[in-house]
Amino acid sequence: MNTALHDLRPLAPPQRHRLAFQCFDALAPGETFELVNDHEPRGLLMQFRAHHPEAFSWQVVQAEPDYWRIRVGRLVAGTGQATPAPGGCGCSCGGQG
């Protein structure tokens, strides 16, 4: 199974969370994707917990000061329902994504 890698760093902050949720929404149960960010994506993790509880996996693959790689997956037991990401996430994206 190939895991797609999405580098969020070149994107404007409001686009980062939107892309992560679009990638997640496209996953079939059991599939994963990886994202690269320039900081720990705590706000994004909080959004996943709020809008996809028990439907996703989150694994830190690499953590360095300016390079974070996270593997996100859709759990087989998840509902498969996509909930749009809200604004105001409380992270460095400025609450816009």
Q: Summed up, what is this model?
A:
With 97 residues, this protein is α+β, with helices and mostly antiparallel strands. The protein has helices at 13-25, 42-51; strands spanning 4-7, 32-37, 56-64, 67-74.
Notable features of this structure?
24% helix, 28% strand, Translation Initiation Factor IF3, 97 residues, 4 strands, alpha+beta, 2 helices, four-stranded mixed β-sheet
Which term fits the overall shape? globular
Query: What are the low-pLDDT stretches, counting only 5+ consecutive residues below 50?
Result: 78-92
Largest sheet: 4 strands, mixed
Per DSSP, the total helix count is: 2
**CATH architecture type:** 2-Layer Sandwich
Domains, number: 1
Helical amount among residues, as a percent range?
10-25%
Under the CATH scheme, which class?
Answer: Alpha Beta
- Kindly state the number of beta strands: 4
- Strand order, largest beta sheet: 1-2-4-3
**Rounded mean pLDDT score:** 84
SSE-based structural type: alpha+beta
Overview of the molecule:
Helix content is about 25%, strand content about 30%. The protein is an alpha+beta fold. The chain has one domain (about 5-75): Translation Initiation Factor IF3. A four-stranded mixed β-sheet has the order 1-2-4-3, covered by helices on one side. The longest helix is centred in the first third of the chain and has 13 residues, at about 15-25. The radius of gyration is 12 Å and the shape is globular.
